[in-house]
Specification:
Radius of gyration: 24 Å
InterPro entries: FUC_metazoa-typ, Fucosidase_C, GH, Glyco_hydro_29, Glyco_hydro_29_N, Glyco_hydro_b
Site (May be important for catalysis): 296
Order of helices and strands: HHHEHHHEHEHHEHHEEHEHEEEEEEE
Number of helices: 13
CATH class of the largest domain: Alpha Beta
CATH topology of the largest domain: TIM Barrel
Number of domains: 2
Enzyme class: hydrolase
Shape: globular
Structural class: alpha/beta
Protein name: Alpha-L-fucosidase
Catalytic activity: a neolactoside IV(2)-alpha-Fuc-nLc4Cer(d18:0) + H2O = a neolactoside nLc4Cer(d18:0) + L-fucose; a neolactoside IV(2)-alpha-Fuc-nLc4Cer(d18:1(4E)) + H2O = a neolactoside nLc4Cer(d18:1(4E)) + L-fucose; an alpha-L-fucoside + H2O = L-fucose + an alcohol
Strand content: 15-25%
Helix content: 25-40%
Oligomer: single chain
Length: 469
Amino acid sequence: MAGAEDTRSPGLPRLAFPLLLLFLLPARPTFGAPPYEPTWESLDARPLPVWFDQAKFGIFIHWGVYSVPSFGSEWFWWYWQEQKKPEYVTFMKQNYPPDFKYEEFGPQFTAHFFNANTWADLLQASGAKYVVLTTKHHEGFTLWGSKYTWNWNAVDEGPKRDIVKELEVAIRDRTDLHFGLYYSLFEWFNPLFLEDKSSSFHKRQFPVSKMLPELYELVTNYRPEVLWADGDGGAPDSYWNSTGFLAWLYNESPVRDTVVTNDRWGAGSICKHGGYYTCSDRYNPGHILPHKWENCMTLDKASWGYRRNAGISDYLTIEELVKQLVETVSCGGNLLMNIGPTPDGTISPIFEERLRQMGTWLNVNGEAIYGTHVWRSPNDTVTPDVWYTSKPKEDLVYALFLKWPTSGQLFLGQPKATFGSTTVKLLGHGQSLKWTSSEQTGIMVNLPHLTINQFPCKWGWALELTSVL
């Protein structure tokens, strides 16, 4: 405990009102950049930094005190204490003393084997182009030594290390990934938030004294290129002063030119406002959207955090993950794939295997993913499990197919050949393939005859088409 005489519960911040006055001032426009106003109309007009659409694939990391019980879900505290779900109550009765409090899990969140360089190398090997770390989930525990958390943070409790800084340094020193941070706006059991909620959010003690100062602290100290907000607690964006904060972020912050933000900035803002849309967890519309979007999903089908009670069938296979990536990118989205490390800071073998498999697949087929655009049709309407991306400047269309036809021939119903100009290649194979077509139909591609060891990859393939309509 930091200060034995301080008896406040975790989550109550040290107040810093002189500093907060700066946060409440209107944002000043940056020289040479548009002066974005603290309104959604102005903020939503900001162009999305180009890097995000080109990246296509990122890794989400959910890591916090919830990884200690590692049972059921990262919502463990809520399900146990608030909803009193029988399986959670029984789990606690069978494994912990009757008067055990959730805060007592804090010292057991040791991060003893956490090595930021090892994490960074694995993330690089996955083929991802950005990473988003949960700096604070709804439990309120921060992975950096926030000045506004009392001692409910990773520097004062548990690891006694600045996890955010260690990973930031490793990512920026060892990889080409963009560094992003997740932050939950609300906290389930913070007394200030609960008091504000009881006033129907007419009081604003929590955002003024904790949430906003922490966000400014995160951006200033760690310079994230993705700021992934979550958890509005039922409060509107006016309660959070989201537009005021975003105006500062886009006008004055150290990442004003490169940062991207999502759509979870208050009740009613999701899939409506923000730099890109997430709409809902595991969102995968299956068609092209007019606004940039992201499919955030989990390797563990049931949880974002680490679960000791997960079985092998609870994890998505590499075939299912490749399918998710291909479908998402073909419809204009990015895939943000989540893993949950253990409380001692290791990434379990099942997660490591999937990450390395994705990297292996992208080493061959990344040309059809990174930096691509949607085509006129996201998928083939004749042959199932065929999806399209394009690079218009290079006059290229990619047909990504998930099943190798036993006949050795793949019919593409959407593209139309331009005779004398069209070529077809299998990525990772190199040689031009033979094809046939007519004015009324698509293209029949003769795939190469390969042994199992000659296939360029195992879980999906991509054809490069030049000069097709």
